[in-house]
Structure prediction request, 290 residues.
Amino acid sequence: MIRAWLELARISNLPTVWTNIAAGWLLAGGGFDARLGWLLVAGSLMYTGGMVLNDAADVKFDREHRRQRPIPSGRVGSATAWGVGLGLLATGWILAVQPGAARWPIVTALVVCILFYDFYHKPWSGAVWVMGLCRTLLMLTAASPLLAVAGGELRIEVLHQALVLGAYIVGLTQVARAESVRGGVGTRARVIARMLLLAPALLALGAGLDARARLAPLAALVLIYLVWIEGCLRQIRRGGPDIGRAVGWLLAGIPLVDALAVGRVSLPLACIFVVLAPLLRLWQRWIAAT
Prediction:
């Protein structure tokens, strides 16, 4: 029973939510604060609720193509999944807005995007952009409690990082959608995916040039990131089952995107994020990430 719920939640991806939130909070100028703890809990609940609802909305498709999933296999009831998923989303919204002090319009937009993606990602290919927007809004949610400190305006570096994080997720999701396509991903899709996946590295290099004191460590982080991405792109070019493996590596690489961001303000934390990436890939062997 527990394993079924962990599979529904794609629990191996949950730490990527924590690194997104931590990066948004730190880039906005936050320090150690109880609000950060509440935001981590709220983000975890909204992510988990969204993943559960994703399976609940896909139950018809899964009964035909993925009968081993928790709901069609009978390990989790469909009505139970709907109730738990919606409850987690609602609780996450409350915790983010109240003790987390996040701005409610941003959190509400995040919940709406999660629900939209869950319902429309199968029939509409453009939903990949909504998935990217979910992560963008998650980072902005983490930064929003500090808007009052910043004079009511969002720091431009937070906005830039939130956008490139969204771009990375769009590139990753485009690859994931092509996982079942015979012959792999087309040339145009590969080019678009490469551009989106490289966006975090370009932003980090630009930030390093602006802050030359941190240029060397940021360059090292960028090199690690590029090696990781190039390995994933090689798998994508091989097509077939290798695309699925590349998706797993790209999901595990989300903390590397956040490492490039927090490297500007905390190199030790950036190093922790780097180490987390291969650990998440190992965790995916126990609980699948997709």
Remarks:
- The radius of gyration is 18 Å.
- The mean pLDDT is 88.
- DSSP finds 13 helices and no strands in the chain.
- Residues 34-57 form the longest helix (24 residues).
